[in-house]
């Protein structure tokens, strides 16, 4: 839901905004250039569903949304390093922050997805550090603090442990000390949730375009 530049013209919304009723919606330009405001992506779709069926969600909780930063946030080109000549930077940043606040107030939480959608298992440390600083400078002020990270490409920096019942991991560690830091026990045979873009870049259909200066792919 970062609405990257490469998504333009491919049938995706162009941004997320707050409509006249104070609800988070998508702005969707169709193939003929006509723009509509409505529920055209997962956030407003789930918001609408939970409004009709509040029992679907415990205490209104919605889910984590992982954000990169190299093309800005939620369709707003808020990256000062990528768009240094933007004349709408201040307004875009303000609007993106209002959207993020509205989403958080409505049960969504945010996670880092790195600034440049980098493969953290392969990225040299200087670039890794630069990426983290960019995320802190350009994304955190908009979405707020978070203690969650969803690895781009599902490329954990540590190995992925064998799935199984608590106490049965190969390392002898219990699931409560898994590499993701999860403290939730999982029932026998269950699988860890697969994050968006968990496929390797070479086979991914949405993370497949090497890009100068940013991530090794996009998602
Ligand atoms: Zn991704």
Automatic annotation (TrEMBL):
Residues 162-219 are annotated as: Disordered. This is Polysaccharide deacetylase family protein. Residues 167-183 have a biased composition (Low complexity). It comes from Paeniglutamicibacter kerguelensis.
């Amino acid at each position: 839901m970062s609405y990257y530049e490469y998504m333009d013209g491919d049938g995706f919304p162009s941004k997320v905004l707050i409509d006249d009723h104070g609800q988070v919606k998508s702005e969707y330009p169709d193939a003929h250039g006509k723009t509509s405001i409505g529920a055209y992506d997962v956030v407003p779709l789930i918001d609408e569903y939970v409004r009709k069926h509040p029992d679907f969600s415990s205490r209104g909780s919605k889910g984590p949304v992982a954000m990169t930063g190299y093309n800005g946030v939620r369709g707003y080109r808020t990256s000062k390093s990528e768009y240094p000549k933007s004349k709408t930077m201040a307004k875009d940043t303000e609007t993106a922050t209002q959207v993020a606040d509205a989403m958080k107030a409505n049960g969504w939480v945010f996670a880092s997805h790195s600034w440049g959608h980098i493969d953290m298992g392969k990225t040299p440390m200087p670039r890794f550090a630069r990426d983290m600083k960019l995320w802190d400078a350009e994304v955190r002020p908009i979405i707020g603090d978070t203690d969650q990270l969803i690895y781009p490409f599902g490329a954990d920096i540590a190995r992925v442990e064998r799935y199984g019942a608590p106490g049965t991991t190969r390392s002898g560690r219990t699931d409560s000390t898994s590499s993701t830091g999860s403290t939730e026990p999982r029932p026998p045979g269950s699988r860890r949730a697969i994050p968006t873009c968990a496929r390797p870049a070479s086979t991914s259909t949405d993370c497949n375009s090497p890009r100068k200066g940013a991530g090794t792919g996009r998602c």
